[in-house]
Amino acid sequence: MIEPAPNEMTFLEHLEELRWRILKSLGAIALFAIIAFANANRIIAFLTAPALALDEPVVLQALKVSDMFMVQIISSLLVGLVLASPVVIFQVWRFVAPAVGRSSRTLTFSIVLFGSLFFLAGITFGYLVMLPFSLRFFTSLGGGLVENNFSIHAYLGYAAWMLIAAGLVFQLPVVSFILTRIGLLTPPFLRHYRRYALVGILVFSAILTPPDPLSQVLMAVPLLGLYELSILISHIFSKPD
Question: Rounded to two decimals, what is the model's pTM?
Answer without folding.
Answer: 0.80
